[in-house]
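note to self: dont lose this again. the chain is below, predicted strucutre after it. 164 aa total, dont forget to put it in the shared folder this time
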Amino acid sequence: MENPKTKDFYIDNKKKFKKFSIVSAILLAVFFLMTVVFYVLSHNQLLSYKVVQVNVISVDIENPLNKIDKDKVVVEYNGKNYEVENLMTNETLKYHTYLSSQKPADAYFANGRIFANIDGIRSTSMIGMIYFVFLFGTLILILTTAVLIGCVVEAKKREKGIYP
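---
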């Protein structure tokens, strides 16, 4: 038999769980909306960059089958060496081909940095960084809201006696 003095965490905190789940759901909706807004702004912003010809100095490929790219490509542009940013695996192999053939490669120069593609420029802009903040906030709020709603459901089940 159940002891009437036994406290149940879920039942005791049901009101708090409801309040927090409502607040979390509202924040989730706001963050999701802001994610969409900043995604659109990011893809419609005017980017200031220049397509340049670079000489490939070195290409270090860590593991071609690895999903996490730790590849490093160093290029020379206007007498200075730059590490190419925002490299994808296929782009690393492209730069490796240019290194072998000793031909200049195309790259994107923006804000004193060399990028492999336009998405790298876009994601390092202020709007792009704000987009990622809202994106990761949305992902965290999805998890938080799901857990809080689960706690409310658990409390209701325990009140009905479904779980002893």
